[in-house]
Amino acid sequence: MLLDVQDLSVSYDGIQAVRQISFNVKQGERVTIIGANGAGKSSTLKALAGLIKLTQGRIQFNGQTINTVPAYERVALGLCLVPEGRGIFQRMSIEENLWMGAYSRGVKEFNQQVGQVYDIFPRLYERRSQNAGTLSGGEQQMLAIGRALLSQPQLLMLDEPSMGLAPQMVDHLFEVIGKVVSQGVSLLLIEQNAELALHLCDRAYVMDTGEIILSDSAKNCLTHPLVQQAYLG
């Protein structure tokens, strides 16, 4: 098992945002967590990335318990989050942003890997000397994913990658994400467009008010009455 989460809980100022959830991601698997705003999805990913503390539970990655491992060390282990809002450094160039993704790997590995990122995102290569803040929303999302790939993740966690993007850009972005995960990177995806997420992924968990209320194959979730009524319109 690549990622195994048991009884994970997260609280903010005494208010429980995530309530004893358990789930897993296997090597090479694509998993999505869907749910309404405020369900606890982003809090879950932040806890996995080490950005917020657990109040309860255990996170195992590649068989190692990482509850107390700092966030930057989790990246080095192969667990990488592309956060909601992208989190790029707007006043730095595209290439400098990509360098930041490879900080745990070193210059040699950056030089070996950056060409592959530019192959996936040729628009970034064309504009590599531009400040990242001059990019469109879709291009910034590509940069955020490219930066994550340079950390050489085993598990890529994406939090709302399509947020704020035009429909045409969303389709292109998900096509690229599909290509990335087809190369063997495991995926844990939060996405407001549940239908897109379910078509891309192998399995799905549905969260509501901090709890997992459904777990099934993504294919079955597409036709599940609860999912259809609440998330597929």
In short:
The protein has helices at residues 41-49, 71-77, 94-101, 107-120, 122-126, 137-149, 167-181, 194-200, 218-223, 225-231, and strands at 3-12, 15-25, 30-35, 56-61, 64-65, 79-82, 155-159, 186-190, 203-208, 211-217. It is an alpha/beta fold and 233 residues long. It has a single domain (3-232), classed as 3-Layer(aba) Sandwich (Rossmann fold).
What's the topology here?
Blueprint lengths: L2 E10 L2 E11 L4 E6 L5 H9 L6 E6 L2 E2 L5 H7 L1 E4 L11 H8 L5 H14 L1 H5 L10 H13 L5 E5 L7 H15 L4 E5 L3 H7 L2 E6 L2 E7 H6 L1 H7 L2
Parallel strand pairs: 3-8, 3-9, 6-7, 7-8
Antiparallel strand pairs: 1-2, 1-4, 4-5, 9-10
Can you give a write-up of this model?
- The model has no long low-confidence stretch (mean pLDDT 93).
- The protein has helices spanning 41-49, 71-77, 94-101, 107-120, 122-126, 137-149, 167-181, 194-200, 218-223, 225-231; strands spanning 3-12, 15-25, 30-35, 56-61, 64-65, 79-82, 155-159, 186-190, 203-208, 211-217.
- The chain has one domain: Rossmann fold (3-Layer(aba) Sandwich).
- The protein is built from 10 helices and 10 strands.
- With 233 residues, the protein is α/β, with parallel strands linked by helices.
- Helix 3 runs parallel beside helix 6.
- The protein is globular and about 45 Å long.
- The strands form 2 sheets. It has a 6-stranded mixed beta sheet, with helices on both faces. The chain has a 4-stranded antiparallel beta sheet with strand order 2-1-4-5, covered by helices on one side.
- A hairpin with a 2-residue loop joins strand 9 (203-208) and strand 10.
- Helix content is 39%, strand content 27%.
